[in-house]
Amino acid sequence: MQISKGVEWAAHACALMCGLPPGKGLKAEALARYHEVPGAYMAKQMQALSKAGIVHTARGKHGGYRLARSADAITLWDIMAAIEGSAPAFRCTEIRQNGPCGAKPEKCLQKCAIAAAFHTAEAEFRESLQGVSLVEIAAGVVAESPSEHLRDVGNWLEKEAVSLS
Amino acid sequence: MQISKGVEWAAHACALMCGLPPGKGLKAEALARYHEVPGAYMAKQMQALSKAGIVHTARGKHGGYRLARSADAITLWDIMAAIEGSAPAFRCTEIRQNGPCGAKPEKCLQKCAIAAAFHTAEAEFRESLQGVSLVEIAAGVVAESPSEHLRDVGNWLEKEAVSLS
């Protein structure tokens, strides 16, 4: 089981966008440069976040990205689901219906005990991430960062932020 | 995020082996036939379970597999970890250290807030599966199965079980 790097990148990009002044945004290219990751792959994550309604996209020469709603209304689960999809990680193929002793489909109206246990565990995972908003992530980043680092980030954002149409 | 089919197969194979009499086992070929899945891929899962100490393997003509310990001492997490490994699904690549405002490594002794939140969510997932033993799974299968199905399974096991050396 593996969560793609894109989730890490998207989460960090969203955390950084928490520091933007109202009406301002960042180009995908700037987000990639800030995180020192390939531009095309960062752009792909931003498009997925846009499609999921997590970021607002302004197109064109003066285009860029900003959060589409307030940071307390965006959770880590929202970001993960935008990038990875929200299909269950455990995909039951109903193998209990296979083979010489296969159960009849009409006797399989309830999830099998194995699928049910995995889906419960996934619900715990999901609810845990749903309990963490970008506000908490941004507060965590601020708490763990020396003041000179925060000043550098503020200066960088001022330099790179574009006014979104 | 996706859990491989092998986890489903291994979990069902282990649940079936709960029904074996003491000293008896099943060949990988019989396990594959029971679940109507490709033999080579089922054998691969059984080897992974064996390597993790979940099943006991007897080799040779009279070889086969049985659970290596009592069903109440085997959890769904044990089975999943045997097949998928137990590395974290979220792999932090420390991108906070990258780029023009990268944090210095010596300031990154604590997990970043994003990695910490994912690792907490994964711990919830893991603990949920650690709370489900094969005894509960087997009891669930019995509870959801009509008596004629259980009779068929019992007959099949009697026919296919081999005495393990």
Detailed description of the structure:
The structure is a homodimer of 165-residue chains. Chain A is mainly α and 165 residues long. The first copy, chain A, has a domain at 5-85 and 133-163: Winged helix-like DNA-binding domain superfamily/Winged helix DNA-binding domain (Arc Repressor Mutant, subunit A), CATH 1.10.10. The first copy, chain A, is 52% helix and 7% strand. In chain A, strand 2 and strand 3 form a beta hairpin. The longest helix of chain A is centred in the C-terminal third of the chain and has 18 residues, at 113-130. The first copy, chain A, starts with a helix and ends with a strand. The model of chain A has no long low-confidence stretch (mean pLDDT 92). Chains A and B meet through helix 1, helix 2, helix 4, helix 5 and helix 6 of A and helix 1, helix 2, helix 4, helix 5 and helix 6 of B.
Summarize the structure.
The first copy, chain A, has 165 residues and is mostly helical.
Please give the number of β-strands of chain A: 4
How many helices of chain A in DSSP terms?
Answer: 7
Structural class of chain A: mainly alpha
In CATH, the architecture of the domain at 5-85 and 133-163 in chain A is Orthogonal Bundle
Alpha-carbon distance between the termini of chain A? 41 Å
CATH homologous superfamily identity of the domain at 5-85 and 133-163 in chain A: Winged helix-like DNA-binding domain superfamily/Winged helix DNA-binding domain
Strand content of chain A: 5-15%
